[in-house]
Amino acid sequence: MCDTRGLIVDVRANGGGDEPTAAQFAGRFVANRFVYACHQRRDGASHTNLTQKISRSVQPRGPWRYDRPVLLLIGERCISSN
After folding, report:
1. How far apart are CA 75 and CA 80, in angstroms?
2. With bands split at pLDDT 50, 70 and 90, how would you rate the model's confidence at 17?
3. Backbone angles phi, psi at 2, to 5 degrees
4. Given the DSSP bridges, would you call strands 7-10 and 34-39 parallel, antiparallel or unpaired?
5. Element holding 73 (H helix, E strand)
6. Which of 26, 41, 27 is nearest to 72 (CA)?
7. Is the per-residue pLDDT at 7 higher than 80?
8. Sequence-separated (6 or more) residues with CB below 8 Å from residue 31
9. DSSP-derived pairing of the beta strands 34-39 and 70-73
10. Which position has the higher pLDDT, 73 or 77?
C-alpha cells in the first residue's frame, strides 16, 4: 500500500464493529494523537448528574502512515464503530 496513489475504503455494508479495532485501523492515517469524541455517563438520579468528560482518541500506529488521498464509501446502514 505504501506505493499506491490513493486508497478506496468501502464500508457500505458494515453495520458496526469493535472500537479498538477501528482505532487501530484509523491509527495508520493520523500523524498525531487525535480526539474524535468525548463521552459522559449519568452518575446519579438527575439528568444533570454527569461524570467528567472522557476523551476518546486515535494514536498513530506502526512504523508508517498512509498519507495519500483516501476515499471512504459509506452507506445508510453504517453505524457504531464503522
Report:
1. 13
2. confident
3. -65, -25
4. unpaired
5. strand 70-73
6. 26
7. yes
8. 60, 65, 67
9. unpaired
10. 73
pLDDT reported for residue 79:
81
DSSP line for 10-56: E-TT-----HHHHHHHHTTS-SS-EEEEEE--B-SSSTT-BPPPEEE
20-69 confidence digits (pLDDT tens): 988 999 999 999 999 999 999 999 899 899 999 999 999 999 888 999 99
Q: Which amino acid is at 12?
A: R
Task: For residue 57, give the nearest of 28, 82, 26, 79 by alpha carbon.
Answer: 26
The pairs formed by 16-19 with CB atoms below 8 angstroms and a separation of 24 or more are 16/79, 16/80, 16/81, 16/82, 17/80, 17/81, 17/82, 18/81, 19/56, 19/81
